[in-house]
Design brief:
globular; 13 helices; Chitinase A, domain 3; disordered N terminus; four-stranded antiparallel β-sheet; 44% helix; 446 residues; Triger factor/SurA peptide-binding fold; 3 domains; alpha+beta
């Protein structure tokens, strides 16, 4: 089983704000086993008088190699990867120091929610997550610190780059015109659904044969016309999977190359696989293909409702979480109605509608809200969720595939252009922050 136990970006990525990525950690591997005998720690670099140690780089190296194996990504030579990771850690350390100077903080509630999301992704409880980490010799407090740093980095990046990431209506018009004439030069988009038959670490040949046969059975039943969502529920072990296995309409270069290579000749509605990655055996269904931004596209939409409590001097974050947990208990017991509680208690504009947020496509909510919403089945109420806006109790009402309206198309284009602008602005800003920092290299990481 693959555990998403650590933060930190992969060596080849620069992420937009708010997208908390939690690389995989293989539960079967003892801590440090893949990097040989642990040596005495030493300082490899100093950033504004703050040291980065060899053991920190080694730990990041192990996590990154495991994540890349899970995603089926080819790993560069270890010494090259260690050098790239050290440079990334220097950049992150300088940004964290800037966040501290500017008074940027992340509350314990947001860290608790991030830990809970990791547990949910692996379909285990927080207590089981803690126990597994302890059994592997990992320090849970350090795990929480890593999560807090990830959230701090997202916040300082948002604050510094928000103005440079704004998108005008004229830019959206230009993008759509380029799409219509085929001159935008953006990759095509694809929507895939998957069944993942997980292969545990150090699986025996007999176990591997059984799991491969199970994946083959799922693929054959899918090709025979059995509903794919039903097969997802029966066969898939993908962490954080949606109810129907959909991974969402996105640019093809945002999928693992293995998935693109496997499905490139498969028609819409067709089945590919099983194909093997570091995570296990994947069976893929091609749901949709289109040129990015073209009119008339259909997207998966979710209709949800929520109750929002905003912490204040009179209501602490912990008290808000406790109150919403009580609401959830009463709803589950049939003692209260979600809509009625929302009308009476929710502190946002949806209160008058019983908390109903209407239909929304991917990307319209903040990532922490959307991550929990996507993990819920229709009718299910989630645990209290802490976001930058307050504390939410979320219920998914229904899901559908809908044709985009012109306004919705524009909003998707706006999000696409904003992400592109952010990445460009981030690159320049990160270099500036790195240039202002005093960096002293000591011994190279081992």
């Amino acid at each position: 089983m693959l555990l998403a136990l650590s933060v930190g970006t992969t060596w080849a990525q620069t992420r937009p704000p708010g997208q908390l990525r939690l690389p995989g950690f293989t539960s079967g591997a003892p801590a440090g086993s893949a990097i040989g005998q642990r040596q005495a720690d030493y300082i490899v670099a100093v950033v504004n008088s703050e040291p980065i140690t060899n053991n920190e780089v080694r730990a990041r190296l192990l996590r990154t190699e495991q994540q890349m194996a899970q995603q089926g990504t080819q790993t560069p030579p270890r010494n090259e990867l260690a050098r790239l990771l050290l440079e990334r850690m220097i950049v992150e350390r300088a940004q964290l120091q800037l966040a501290k100077e500017q008074g940027v903080q992340v509350g314990d509630g947001m860290v608790d929610e991030a830990v809970l999301n990791v547990a949910r992704q692996n379909q285990i409880s927080v207590e089981e997550l803690r126990n597994r980490m302890t059994a592997q010799g990992l320090v849970f407090a350090q795990f929480r610190t890593d999560l807090r740093n990830e959230l701090l980095l997202n916040r300082i990046r948002e604050r510094e780059l928000e103005a440079q990431s704004k998108v005008t209506e004229q830019e959206i018009d230009q993008y759509l015109r380029e799409q219509e004439t085929g001159s935008a030069g953006v990759p095509p988009q694809i929507n895939l659904a998957q069944i993942l038959v997980v292969v545990p670490e150090n699986a025996s040949a007999d176990q591997l044969a059984v799991l491969q046969a199970r994946a083959q059975l799922a693929a054959e039943r899918a090709r025979s016309g059995v509903d794919f969502a039903t097969l997802v529920s029966e066969f898939s072990g993908a962490p954080g999977r949606s109810a129907d296995g959909q991974m969402g309409l996105r640019d093809s270069d945002r999928y693992p190359q293995l998935f693109i290579d496997t499905t490139q000749t498969v028609p819409v509605g067709g089945i590919a696989g099983p194909v093997r990655s570091g995570a296990g055996f994947h069976v893929l269904k091609v749901l949709e293909r289109k040129s990015a931004g073209m009119p008339g596209a259909a997207v998966a939409e979710t209709r949800a409702r929520h109750i929002l409590l905003r912490p204040s001097a009179q209501l602490t974050e912990q008290a808000a979480v406790a109150r919403l947990a009580d609401f959830k208990r009463r709803i589950a017991a049939g003692q209260a109605d979600f809509a009625a509680l929302a009308r009476e208690n929710s502190q946002d504009g949806s209160a008058k509608d019983g908390g109903d947020l209407g239909w929304a496509a991917a990307g319209q909510y903040v990532p922490e809200f959307e991550a929990q919403m996507n993990s819920l089945a229709p009718g299910q109420v989630g645990d209290p969720l802490v976001s930058r806006f307050g504390v939410h109790l979320i219920q998914v009402m229904e899901r559908r595939s809908a044709k985009l309206s012109p306004r919705e198309q524009r909003e998707i284009v706006r999000a696409t252009l904003r992400e592109k602008k952010f990445e460009e602005a981030y690159s320049a800003w990160a270099q500036e922050v790195r240039g202002r920092a005093y960096v002293e290299y000591r011994e190279p990481p081992q």
